[in-house]
Structures are given as structure tokens and as C-alpha cells.
Amino acid sequence: MIQLFRVSKSFGTSKALQDINLRIRKGEFVFVTGPSGAGKTTLLRLIFGTEPPTEGQILIRGINLNRIRRTSLDLLRRRMGFVFQDFKLLSRKTVFQNVAIALEVTGERPAIVRKKTHQALKAVGLSKKEELFPLQLSGGEQQRVAIARAVVNDPLILIADEPTGNLDPDITRDIMILFRSINLRGTTVIIATHSQELMKDTEQRIILLKEGRMLRER
Amino acid sequence: MGLRNWAYYSKHAFINIFGNRLVHAISIGTIASSLILFGSFILLFYNLNHWMLEWGQSLSMSVYLQDEIDQKTKARIESLLKNLPSAELKEYISKDRAMEDLIDGLGVHSGLLEGLKENPLPASFEIIFKDVNIRQLDPQGMKEEIEKIEGVQEVQYSEEWLDRLEGLVYVLKVAGFIIAGFLCLAVLFITTNTIKLTIYSRRDEVEILKLVGATDWFVKMPFLIEGAIQGLVGGVIALSTISLLFLLFSMDKVHIIGLPVLEIVFLPMAHLAFIILLGLILGLIGSFIAVGRFFDA
Ligand SMILES: Nc1ncnc2c1ncn2[C@@H]1O[C@H](COP(=O)(O)OP(=O)(O)OP(=O)(O)O)[C@@H](O)[C@H]1O
Ligand SMILES: [Mg+2]
Description:
The structure holds 2 protein chains of 2 kinds. Chain A is α/β, with parallel strands linked by helices. Chain A has one domain (about 1-215): 3-Layer(aba) Sandwich (Rossmann fold), CATH 3.40.50. Helices cover about 35% and strands about 25% of the residues of chain A. Chain A has a 6-stranded mixed β-sheet, with helices on both faces. A 4-stranded antiparallel β-sheet of chain A has the order 2-1-4-5, with helices on one face. In chain A, a hairpin with a 2-residue loop joins strand 4 and strand 5. In chain A, helix 4 packs across helix 5 (about 140-150). Chain A is globular, with a radius of gyration of 17 Å. The mean pLDDT of chain A is about 90. Chain B is of the alpha+beta class. Chain B folds into 2 domains: about 1-55 and about 165-295, no CATH class; about 60-155, 2-Layer Sandwich (Alpha-Beta Plaits). Helices cover about 70% and strands about 10% of the residues of chain B. Chain B has a 4-stranded antiparallel β-sheet with strand order 2-3-1-4. The longest helix of chain B is centred in the middle third of the chain and has 43 residues, at about 160-200. Chain B starts with a helix and ends with a helix. The relative contact order of chain B is 0.17. The model of chain B is unreliable at about 255-260 (pLDDT under 50). The interface of A and B includes residues 50 and 109 of A.
């Protein structure tokens, strides 16, 4: 599903990632962890195709991101959900509209858009706040809107950058259950976090990054 | 998929316009003013051409007769003139009539003529050429032919005067094209910048649309429609204003001393459609430029 061959990424002289080799199979549930500045966000962005690698190749479902055409990348994005570390919600749009946008771009029927958007917001426990605007929500609620937007179109790959950073333990547990259930339906899930709590007592695969290098895997 | 997307595009185009009301109002105002100027030029040229044709159709010739010709010669000249192609013999002006006209024309200065012992003015036949394109006539050739007729003193026609008018129209046309070109550029500049402003104020939305897999066209379309609407509304406003001005001006027919009554004619449908179309196209091109610049960057 996802393959990285000798991938490096530099910003100017600073090397955010160095020589990453990685293979993530369909339906896997993977944690990416490491200290702040280790390159977790950078790795996720490379996989999502918002940044090109400085060196190396990235293949998503057999497609080389270096050679992909713009329109194919757009289509690929529709099959991927991304929960951004800074949420990236539109403050002028309601919670409902923020989530619906991911379906609207695919040209989905309005009735289906409504149904799926309601479902996704219900799954993150925000049914009652659909008509509010992001700035009227708490940080944790905004994060859940971002999660709802990422899962609303049943992605093949779900990428989440610190998805529980602002959530209290109860909601964190709910969100993790949501990710698990999405994973059980066949979606590949990649989560970046430095929360040991989140990874504790799981048998999941963990990729540890430090200073841009892959230290070990479990 | 098509229809649904169009609904989305239009909705967002209107949201954009409404969200930036003031900028759009200014922009549409500028587009409308430019197009009003542009339309007025077209209206002016259209009427100049129209008037020229009218005058061409009534191109006149004065055939001056020698003094002391007999009735038979006069009748012969008259019938020859009548037989010229598309000519119409308007009137015969006798020596006395010519003098009267001159005295009338001089008005208070008619005293100047008092010292004259005899009438120096020739009698003349006035001919007009009707329903004929002036360019198909050869006034100089005709003049020479007619002057060969026995009893004819001289022929004068109004071509020189038309030449000068044509020159004027030509100069106006060139000036008009240059000004129209600048106006088009101004409209382009305005729409491009308005749309750039909207895109800029929506850049977070553009970013997120791309992140959730919108195609470039999906993102661009509302901005293109926005530009088109701007141009279209500007065009409609311009056309309404021109029509209104036309109605005001055409209440009275224009009289210019010595010239025939001028009738202002309004533009035909094709020209009207052109003004609106021009607004639409300029709006579209402007937004294309804005969108292109933004997406390249
Ligand atoms: N756009 C950028 N321009 C310049 N440097 C960047 C950019 N993005 C990331 N970096 C650098 O790359 C390195 C890795 O950053 P990254 O955001 O991937 O870390 P992270 O592991 O996600 O950290 P955190 O846990 O704090 O989110 C950092 O040193 C950062 O300064
Ligand atoms: Mg990060």
C-alpha cells in the first residue's frame, strides 16, 4: 500500500528526514513516534504528497508520487484522509460545512453528502454542534471536526498527526476506538504521536524517529 | 456530476461576490463606466457612418448655365441631366432666384451688393443623386462630361466636402480604437485584481479544497464564474445607461445649420449583444489571468 525507498527530505541545510525505508501494508495500523522535531509531520506530509521528497521514491498503491500527474494526485487524495496537527478548519464555515467539503469536491449527491456528514459527526460525538463555527468550539472539539472530515469519505488510508493532542483521556479512548473501527473496515491507519499513553498496551507496529532517522520498529 | 458541480460553483461565486461586496461594487462600477465609454464610441461611429450614407445618398451637383442661352438649349440640357443614371433634377434656379438667395444669405450685409449694375450670378440646375453609393459614382468624370454640353458654364459637386468628412471619421476611428484598447486593458486590470483579491481572501479555503482532493478546475471555477458575472453585470449596466442616454438625446432630432436634419439611430441588436459579450469576455479573461497567476505560484 505505502512504500518508501531511501527517502530524504531537507529544508535548506536542515535535514528533516534521512534515508527512510518503509513499507506499510494494506489494513495496517501504525504509530509514528519520536521527540518533537524528529520529522513525524514531515514523514506524513511526504506520504500525503503535499511535500516532495528531496531524495528517494514514494509509492502509494503502486503509484510513484514523483511521477504522478496533478489530477491523479487529486483523485488519490480523495481516498486518503488527513487529520492535521493544526486542524486546518475554515472559520467562516460551520462544523457541518467543514466536514461536508471533503465530499462535495467529489461531486457526491447532496443527499449522500448530508447523510455521510451527519454520520461522521455523530461518530466523533459532535452531532449537537453541527451548526456552530470552529471558533465557538474547544480545541478538542475542533480536533474532532478535523477527524470527522478525514474519515467522512471512507478513506483507504487515514493519516493523523497528533490526533489526540488536545483531548482528555475519555475522549481519547473514544477517538482511538473510532480509529480502530475504521481500521477494522480495511482502512490503513497511520498515527503520529508522542503520547506513550496512546501506544501503551497495544500490539501495534510503532515506528520510532529521531533527528530524521528511523531508529527502530516494533 | 456536471449539473451538481455547476450548482456548487455558482453558489460559491455568489458567496464570494457577497463576501467582497464593496470591492465588487467598485469593480463593476469601473467595468460599467469603461463599457459605457466604449458603447458611446460605437454609437457615435455607427451614427457617423449612418449620416455619411445619408449625405452620400443626397450628393448634389450644381450645373451652372451660361448667360443668354435660349429656351431650346436650356430644355436640351434639362433632358440630358434628367437622363443621367440615378440622378434627380431637383430644381432650376434662375439668375433672379440666385440673386435673391444671395441677398437672403448675406442678410444685414446685403448692402454690399447694391453697387452692382447687373446680376453676375448664373442660373443653375440642382441635381441630387439618390439611392446610390457615393463610391460608385465618378463625380469628376461626370463633371467633365456635363461641362462639355453646350450652354453649360461650370459644374460643382460636393465631393471635396465628403472627403474631408471621411478623413475626420477615419481619424476618429483610429482614436476610438486606441481608446477602446486602453479601456479594455483597464477592465482587464480591474477584474484581474478583484478576482486576485477574492482568491487571496479565500486562500485558506483553496488550500483545504486541494488537500481534500478537489481538482484544479473545481477550485478555479467559482472564481471564473465570479469574473464572468462581474463582466456581465458591468455590461448590462453599461448597456442600460447607454440606452437611457440615447432616449434622452433622441427626443429631439439634431439640427445643424446648413446640413440636413440628423437623425440619431440606435445600435442594432448585434452591437448591443457585443457590449454585453465584451464585458463577459473581459471578466472571464481577467479571472483566468488571476486564477492562473495564483495557481502557478
Ligand atoms: N516547512 C519547513 N521549513 C523548514 N523547516 C521545516 C519545515 N517543516 C519542518 N521543518 C523542520 O523539519 C524538522 C522536523 O519537523 P516536523 O514538523 O516533521 O517534526 P515533528 O516530529 O512533527 O515535531 P512535533 O512533534 O513537534 O510536531 C524540524 O527541525 C523542523 O524545523
Ligand atoms: Mg508534528
